[in-house]
């Protein structure tokens, strides 16, 4: 496959390395200084676009790639308040799109564990859930998209919890504790705590290889397909 990268920070470089290792070609790299090069002439042979940028850029990147009829995979978070609009645009224009708050295979197994535990103890009000997430200091969005995904799964399973809150205690909201520390790739811990015990599960990323691999696998799966997909919808097919 010929892959165009939008965003060439630490994730973009890791995706480039992983894609080449899997036999693909990076035919175009788009950064802020050369965004005008994302055009019909330069993307004629592009089979997929993989994008990791910032919340204030992603919507424009999606719209541009839809105009160019380019399959789009994004790991950018912080834009999900516009997800219904993007879904409709994708379906109306018959485009191909995959998004994820986290493309890591390990994290997606972690998501399933979280859902399973929440579904088992959702009627036991003695267990109070909470989430802690730690990321590197360069991460802008807070809490992380991964933490929000974990929180929403718990909320869907807990009838007495209606939303999440950031760094604040609440009886009806799930608390997410968010931290930024130098050198941390990403660590997420979910706790279900009662007066008598605590159940906790943790995922700690040592590097960005897992995120990159998942994004490239998503691009491979999307080849010659149309539709709007969340990564968790296709995860079982990939493993």
Task: Walk me through what this model shows.
This protein is of the alpha/beta class. The protein is 36% helix and 26% strand. It contains seven helices and eleven strands. The strands form two sheets. It has a six-stranded parallel sheet, sandwiched between helices. The chain is elongated, with a radius of gyration of 19 Å. The two termini are 20 Å apart.
Summarize it.
With 239 residues, the protein is α/β, with parallel strands linked by helices. Helices cover 36% and strands 26% of the residues.
List the helices and strands and how they pair.
Layout: E1 2-6, H1 10-21, E2 25-30, E3 48-51, H2 55-67, E4 72-74, H3 83-92, E5 96-99, H4 105-121, E6 128-135, H5 145-157, E7 163-166, E8 173-180, E9 186-193, E10 198-205, H6 209-222, E11 227-230, H7 231-238
Parallel strand pairs: 1-2, 1-3, 3-4, 4-5, 5-11, 6-8, 7-8
Antiparallel strand pairs: 6-9, 9-10
What attributes characterize this protein structure?
alpha/beta; 239 residues; six-stranded parallel sheet; 11 strands
Apparent shape: elongated
Task: Count the E strands.
Answer: 11
Strand order of the largest sheet: 2-1-3-4-5-11
Query: Per DSSP, what share of the residues sits in E-state strands of 2 or more residues?
Result: 25-35%
What percent of residues adopt helix (DSSP H or I)?
Answer: 25-40%
| Structural class by sheet pairing and helices | alpha/beta
Count the DSSP helices. Answer: 7
| Major sheet size, sense and barrel closure | 6 strands, parallel
What is the succession of H and E elements?
EHEEHEHEHEHEEEEHEH
Oligomeric organization of the protein chains:
single chain
Query: Which residue ranges are poorly predicted, with pLDDT under 50 across at least 5 consecutive positions?
Result: none
Radius of gyration: 19 Å
- On the 0 to 100 scale, the average pLDDT is 94
How far apart are the first and last residues' alpha carbons, in Å?
20 Å
């Amino acid at each position: 496959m010929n892959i165009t990268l939008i965003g060439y920070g630490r994730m973009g470089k890791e995706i480039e390395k992983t894609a080449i290792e899997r036999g693909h070609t990076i035919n175009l790299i788009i950064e802020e200084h050369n965004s005008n090069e994302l055009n019909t002439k330069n993307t004629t042979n592009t089979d997929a676009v993989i994008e990791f940028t910032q919340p204030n850029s992603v919507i424009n990147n999606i719209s541009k790639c839809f105009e160019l009829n380019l399959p789009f995979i994004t790991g950018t978070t912080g834009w999900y308040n516009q997800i219904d609009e993007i879904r409709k645009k994708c379906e109306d224009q018959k485009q191909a799109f995959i998004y994820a708050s986290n493309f890591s295979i390990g994290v997606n197994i972690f998501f399933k564990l979280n859902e399973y535990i929440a579904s088992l103890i959702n009627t036991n009000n003695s267990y109070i859930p909470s989430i802690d997430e730690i990321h590197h200091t360069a991460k802008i969005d807070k809490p992380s998209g991964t933490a929000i995904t974990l929180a929403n799964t718990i909320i869907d399973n807990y009838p007495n919890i209606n939303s999440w809150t950031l760094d604040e205690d609440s009886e009806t909201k799930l608390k997410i504790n968010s931290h930024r520390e130098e050198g941390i790739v990403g660590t997420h811990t979910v706790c279900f705590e009662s007066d008598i015990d605590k159940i906790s599960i943790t995922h700690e990323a040592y590097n960005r290889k897992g995120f990159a691999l998942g994004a490239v696998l998503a691009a491979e799966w999307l080849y010659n397909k149309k539709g709007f997909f969340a990564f968790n919808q296709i995860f079982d097919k990939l493993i």
